[in-house]
Design a protein that fits this description.
The complex is a heterodimer of chains A (about 325) and B (about 160). Chain A has about 325 residues and is an alpha+beta fold. Helices cover about 30% and strands about 25% of the residues of chain A. The chains are: A alpha+beta (about 325), B alpha+beta (about 160). Bound molecules: FE2/S2 (inorganic) cluster (FES) (2 copies).
Chain lengths: ~325, ~160
């Protein structure tokens, strides 16, 4: 009877979005009379930071500071269609739609500015601070505030744009069954170190080191936040979470979330996160979907570490003390 | 059912309400008084999202009968910012990215405030212990622990 140490490694590829009847998201962008920009979406922010990221993407594309952009995701009945924020698709799908809508709005904005400045719209650029300048002659400029006023009250233009991004449905090839279930894969690798008590079956995760390749991190602090929380959730899936903790009899199962175990602040592994940025070809400013993938590689890494520690393969989640002890017994090790 | 009059102070201001006998403080605060900062996660004392401070003690408002709070001084997260300036704990949670969906955050901040009120210079173990009754689905806890430790340090610098 002893506490045994083990180390496990796992690597994953993780998709962005999915392939049901096609995977679309649409976006609308328009300016207010004072030159702020409104992004209208049905893509819901449930804490993952959708609004912040879409504001950044719109601001970057139009050429204004992020605080000049308001993102409205209030109503899925009236907003432009989105399949939803799931399958790690929000940033990638909605972001691409927002870029297209913002480009169109930017074009109108530059056309109105060109009329005001009596120059060609192709000779104009934005300074990112809320002004439009003539390239090479920055003393000739107009604020976006004034451009919006002119569009609304003088020139009768709508500074607005429509955007949509669609991954078309992929049908399996008849011969091989091959198809494209999703796009734009993110990658991750985790090394986990555990201690297993072979008398009680209890597992302590000592360290998890995670490397994530998630395309361009559009907001590095928010990406880090997602990855830290996701790493914890991966361990939780590996060792704790189930709706039937008291198997084998379903009658003993939990009836509400009080009996749904998760590791608390006292059960944290020493966690390391490293982010690799390889901008994706088809993502908005190179982004991929870091949403779900971050909670996956810890699961096989912990399972492998347990195997390394006590020599048993537990292939049912979560890897509870009971399952470890049963496996040890089956092996005849105890 | 009979209504019961209750009077208490909420974040320093007087409140008087009629509540159903047997109503929880959580319901009284959210539905009667209109302070929605305490959240109802489980309504049975296991998640900590409804935590408030009553007469200086951390309490679960979902397990506290409103009628037992007459004359009490109640503090919620909604009352922490003063004159538009965030409380050091709120500031630290923001800076440390210690909130994602935000549902656990008011309860976490109450638990942390109750700790720092009694233990201004806590160890990591003290913080973990103080937060152990609060569940978070999003953050993995580490950013929250770091936020509380940072707030404690900034408090002690202000005093010094
Ligand atoms: S709502 Fe009170 S502890 Fe969960
Ligand atoms: S931030 Fe979502 S539950 Fe804690």
């Amino acid at each position: 009877m002893a506490i045994r140490r083990g180390r496990g490694v796992a690597a994953i590829n993780y998709p962005t979005g999915m392939n049901l009847g096609g995977d679309p998201t649409q976006a609308l962008v328009h300016s207010t009379p004072t030159g702020n920009f409104m992004v209208t979406l049905s893509s819901v922010d449930l804490g993952q930071g959708m609004k912040q990221i879409m504001a950044q993407i719109c601001a970057e594309t139009i050429g204004v500071p992020t605080d000049r952009v308001v993102v409205d995701t209030a109503d899925t009945d009236t907003g432009p269609h989105c399949m939803g924020t799931f399958a790690s698709r929000g940033t990638h799908r909605a972001g691409n739609a927002v870029i297209q809508a913002a480009r169109e709005a930017r074009q109108v904005m530059l056309e109105v500015a060109a009329e005001e400045l009596e120059v060609d719209a192709r000779d104009l650029e934005t300074d990112g601070q809320g002004n439009i300048l003539v390239k090479g002659a920055p003393q000739k400029s107009i604020s976006i505030f004034d451009v919006a006023l002119s569009a609304h009250f003088k020139r009768g233009r709508s500074i607005s744009g429509r955007g949509m991004f669609l991954i078309p449905r992929s049908y399996p090839e008849k011969e091989t069954g091959a198809m494209k279930p999703s796009t734009c894969y993110a990658h991750a690798c985790t090394v986990a170190e555990v201690e297993v008590d072979d008398e009680t079956g209890e597992v302590t995760v000592l360290t998890v080191k995670n490397i994530f390749e998630i395309g361009r991190a559009l907001n590095p602090k928010m990406v880090e936040q997602q990855l830290v929380g996701g790493s914890w959730m991966g361990i939780s899936h590996a060792l704790y979470e189930t709706t039937e903790p008291y198997y084998p009899s379903r009658d003993h199962g939990g009836t509400d979330f009080n009996q749904y175990l998760m590791p608390g602040p006292g059960d944290l592994a020493d966690t390391e996160i490293i982010v690799l940025e390889r901008p994706s070809a088809d993502g908005p400013y190179g982004a991929k979907g870091p949403g779900e993938m971050c909670a996956n590689p810890q699961i096989p890494a912990v399972a492998n570490a347990i195997f390394d520690a006590v020599g048993v393969r537990v292939d049912t989640l979560p890897i509870t003390p009971e399952r470890i002890l049963r496996a040890l017994k089956a092996e005849g090790t105890v | 059912m009979a209504k019961v009059p209750i009077q208490f102070t909420l974040n320093g201001s007087e409140k008087a309400e009629f509540v159903e006998s047997g109503a929880t403080l959580l319901n009284a605060l959210r539905d009667k008084v209109g302070d929605t900062s305490p959240k109802g996660g489980c309504h049975q004392g296991t998640c900590g999202a409804c935590s408030v401070i009553i007469d200086g003690e951390l309490r679960l408002s979902c397990l506290t009968l409103a009628e037992t709070c007459s004359g009490a001084a109640i503090i919620t997260t909604a009352g922490l910012a003063e004159g538009g300036v965030l409380h050091p704990l709120q500031r630290a949670f923001l800076d440390a990215f210690a909130s994602q969906c935000g549902f656990c955050t008011p309860g976490m901040i109450m638990a942390a405030k109750a700790l720092l009120d009694h233990t201004p210079d806590p160890s990591r173990e003290d913080v973990v212990e103080a937060l152990s009754g609060n569940i978070c689905r999003c953050t993995g806890y580490e950013p929250i622990i770091q936020a509380v430790l940072t707030a404690a340090r900034s408090n002690s610098q202000n005093v010094a």
